[in-house]
């Protein structure tokens, strides 16, 4: 019971962060869950928790989702999950973390160099899904390829939530095929699901109060912190190998 309450409270706090800013909560939740959840269960359970959190975010922000972007993104995600995952398995995780961290930094501060706004949504979905299944960093990676500069903040958060729901859904299906029975932990998932709904409702209220100009600045700073964390993790792993 203590574990249920602890993880539910963590899910509430982190989903509030993500609902207000679009990213950040998933990384924090993973770090917190790693302290109390067995390693073999950590990634599947975190994926299920993030699926529920992003589904709740979609319910709260459903009026702001850019469906014209999401439809081809979803198709690309399915294809990318099937085709790119075997290729991504050959990439050492530390190298992948450093590469993704640098990519997010470049996409955040010098997007014109990558011309991400010209990428077709199907290409973005395929690339990010294939890599995220193996290398993680799903939220910041997807946020970095969204054409955010032309969208209002609610559309950024709502569309990102739908994209993440698709990707975490694919991840849960992938782990289920590997005989990970998440239903055994239904009490944890129920508590986390209710907590993320409450957190998303709170985060949506906070989002509505953030001025448009400040939202972009804070989001870019948050993406930078998460990207630097990825680079540090990769470099630390390589140095300790």
UniProtKB/TrEMBL annotation:
<dbReference type="InterPro" id="IPR002781">
    <property type="entry name" value="TM_pro_TauE-like"/>
</dbReference>
<keyword id="KW-0812">Transmembrane</keyword>
<keyword id="KW-0472">Membrane</keyword>
<keyword id="KW-1003">Cell membrane</keyword>
<feature type="transmembrane region" description="Helical">
    <location>
        <begin position="185"/>
        <end position="203"/>
    </location>
</feature>
<dbReference type="Pfam" id="PF01925">
    <property type="entry name" value="TauE"/>
</dbReference>
<feature type="transmembrane region" description="Helical">
    <location>
        <begin position="29"/>
        <end position="52"/>
    </location>
</feature>
<comment type="similarity">
    <text>Belongs to the 4-toluene sulfonate uptake permease (TSUP) (TC 2.A.102) family.</text>
</comment>
<protein>
    <recommendedName>
        <fullName>Probable membrane transporter protein</fullName>
    </recommendedName>
</protein>
<feature type="transmembrane region" description="Helical">
    <location>
        <begin position="215"/>
        <end position="232"/>
    </location>
</feature>
<keyword id="KW-1133">Transmembrane helix</keyword>
<feature type="transmembrane region" description="Helical">
    <location>
        <begin position="73"/>
        <end position="92"/>
    </location>
</feature>
<feature type="signal peptide">
    <location>
        <begin position="1"/>
        <end position="19"/>
    </location>
</feature>
<keyword id="KW-0732">Signal</keyword>
<feature type="transmembrane region" description="Helical">
    <location>
        <begin position="98"/>
        <end position="119"/>
    </location>
</feature>
<feature type="transmembrane region" description="Helical">
    <location>
        <begin position="126"/>
        <end position="146"/>
    </location>
</feature>
């Amino acid at each position: 019971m203590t574990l249920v309450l602890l993880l539910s409270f963590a899910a509430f706090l982190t989903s509030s962060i993500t609902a207000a800013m679009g990213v950040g909560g998933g990384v924090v939740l993973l770090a917190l869950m790693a302290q109390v959840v067995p390693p073999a269960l950590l990634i599947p359970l975190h994926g299920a928790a993030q699926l529920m959190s992003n589904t709740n975010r979609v319910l709260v922000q459903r009026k702001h989702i850019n469906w014209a972007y999401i439809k081809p993104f979803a198709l690309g995600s399915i294809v990318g999950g099937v085709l790119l995952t075997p290729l991504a398995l050959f990439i050492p995780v530390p190298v992948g973390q450093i590469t993704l961290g640098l990519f997010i930094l470049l996409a955040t501060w010098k997007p014109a160099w990558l011309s991400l706004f010209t990428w077709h949504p199907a290409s973005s979905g395929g690339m990010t899904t294939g890599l995220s299944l193996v290398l993680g960093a799903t939220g910041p990676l997807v946020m970095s390829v969204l054409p955010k500069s032309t969208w209002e903040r609610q559309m950024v958060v709502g569309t990102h939530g739908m994209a993440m729901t698709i990707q975490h859904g694919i991840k849960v299906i992938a782990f289920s095929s590997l005989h990970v029975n998440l239903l055994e932990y239904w009490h944890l998932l129920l508590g986390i699901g209710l907590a993320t709904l409450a957190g998303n409702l709170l985060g949506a209220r906070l989002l509505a109060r953030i001025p448009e100009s400040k939202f972009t600045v804070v989001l870019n700073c948050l993406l930078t912190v998460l990207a630097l964390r990825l680079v540090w993790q990769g470099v630390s792993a390589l140095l300790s190998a």
